[in-house]
Structures are given as C-alpha cells and as structure tokens.
Specification:
- The protein has nine helices and four strands.
- It is α+β, with helices and mostly antiparallel strands.
- The protein folds into two domains: about 1-55 and about 160-290, no CATH class; about 60-150, Alpha-Beta Plaits (2-Layer Sandwich).
Length: about 290
C-alpha cells in the first residue's frame, strides 16, 4: 500500500517536472486568480465596513410630546432599551438641542439667540444595529405612546441596503468567474500532460489498472499546483494589501481599513484549501476523457 502511494506521488511530481513550462504557467495563472480573489474579498470586507459605518451614522431621532412628565419620559427610555435592534440610546433635552443648533449656525448664531428652547421638543437619539430589520424596528418604536414625531433617513437606509446587495452579488460573480478561469487553465495543463502520456495510460488500462489508479497522479498534480499557488498568494496578499490597498483606503480618511496581520492562519487555510480544490477540479475532467479506452 505504501509502495503504491509512493508510486502515485512520484508520478505526479514526474509529470510536474516534465512539463515545467505548463506547470509554471498554471501556478502563475492560479496565483494571479487567487490573489485577485483574496484582494477582492478584503476589498469587499472594507466596503461592507464602510457601509456599516455609514449606517451607524444614520441616526434616528424621536421627538417626545412636550406635555409628558419626567417619569413618563423615563418610561419611554426603558421601552427603547428593550428593543434589541437599536443601540447607543441617549436622551437630548430641548435646551441641549437648541445649543447644538446655535453652534451649527456658526457666525450666524446671534440671529437666533432670542429664540427660546421651548420651541423645540425633548428627544431620544439612537442607531439601528441591523439595517435589514429597519422597518420592523420602526414599527416597534411607533407603538410606544408619547412619541410626537419620528425623524429617520429611510432613503439613506434603502440606498445602503441596495448597495449591500449589489456588493454581495458582485463579490459572488467575481469569485465564481475567477474559480472557473483557474480551473480551465489547470484543465488545459493536465490535458496536455495526459495527451502526452496517452499510450502509457492505455497500456496501464490494458493490464488491468483501475480508473482511480490512473487518475490519482493527475489529481495529486492539481493539488500540488494549487497548494504551491496558495502559499505564493499568501505572501503576495500581505504585501499587496499592506503596501498598496490598505494605504489607499486609509488616505481617503473615511474609516480605518481592516487589518490582516492577525489573520494569517485564516488566509493560509483559505488559499491552500481553495487552490487545492480548484487544482483537483481542473485535473479531474481531462483525465476522464482518456481512461475509457
């Protein structure tokens, strides 16, 4: 059994070294695809992080009936805290609201200095945790008694949700396309190798070799190509992201980009496993066309 396994592994390495240019081409193309794939994943994660940040800044403000007593205001506060999909709830008295308004007017604040804070209402301000549950959350809030008016940026929320869906669909499309391209490249490489050894495969079949025995070296070859490409991609990803992508994102100053220094194990597993699977898939198809003799 051990001798058979060693023979299959040696056959895989022999095929790799006998087709150096094709192997190098497969590794190069698969590395580029995996690098693009990994960079796309990081880019989409940063986009989602930015979307979440924008969503967090889309605050909801509820204005309270001016006739409510302090006990009733406290009761509304407790009811808001019981709603699971809201966070950072804080009370803003009308005096503070007037002060904020005057500060926002800058040099023109003196024009409104005679206006009393009584023209405003006390309010509660908070953020929505999960924007996908925005409508349900607003329905729960609307059932609270004592709320005079609700101010929320539903248009902004809808745009954020639309962008999130587009980003998800785009990510799936790009990932799928890259996997197909990588598998096709490896398939062409293995097809060339198999065709060059067509007579040897036919001889092995005539003397009783099973389909699995014939296919295994090529499957191992595809896995080796995928693992090597995965390791190379791992090194390149850290360089490309840390030296190019992350600084560009940081220069915009909109948010702090995701750090990947503490995620080396996750990325190593992602690249190695993805490369091995793509390599194995790319190797499986062409061999089947020649084992049925």
């Amino acid at each position: 059994m051990i001798d058979r396994c060693l023979f299959l592994i040696k056959s895989a390495f022999r095929s790799i070294f006998n087709n150096k240019l094709l192997t190098l081409g497969s590794i190069t193309v698969l590395t580029i695809c995996l690098l693009t794939l990994g960079s796309s994943v990081l880019l989409f994660e940063n986009i989602n992080l930015f979307i979440d940040k924008v969503g967090d800044e889309s605050q909801v403000v509820i204005f309270i009936d001016e006739n409510l007593a302090q006990d009733e205001i406290n009761q509304i506060h407790q009811q808001l805290l019981q709603i699971q999909n809201i966070q950072d709830v804080h009370f803003e008295p009308k005096e503070r609201a007037m002060q904020n308004y005057l500060e926002s007017m800058g040099e023109n604040s003196e024009l409104f200095s005679d206006i009393s804070s009584d023209v405003l209402r006390n309010s509660f301000i908070f953020n929505i945790k999960d924007l996908a549950k925005f409508d349900q959350t607003m329905f729960e809030i609307s059932k609270i008694e004592g709320i005079a008016r609700i101010r929320e940026r539903r248009d902004v929320i809808e745009r954020i949700r639309d962008i999130s869906r587009i980003v998800l669909l785009l990510a799936i499309a790009i990932i799928t396309l890259l996997i197909i391209i990588s598998a096709m490249i490896i398939t062409n490489n293995v097809r060339t190798s198999v065709y060059a050894r067509k007579e040897e495969i036919e001889t092995m079949k005539y003397i009783g070799a099973t389909d699995l025995f014939v296919q295994t070296p090529y499957l191992i070859e595809g896995i080796i190509i995928g693992v090597v490409a995965g390791l190379i991609t791992l090194l390149l990803t850290f360089f490309v992201y840390n030296e190019i992508i992350s600084p560009i994102i940081a220069d915009f100053g909109l948010f702090t980009p995701i750090a990947i220094k503490g995620r080396i194990i996750q990325f190593a597993l992602f690249y190695i496993v993805s490369g091995a699977i793509i390599g194995m898939i790319g190797s499986a198809t062409p061999v089947k066309n020649y084992v049925n003799v």
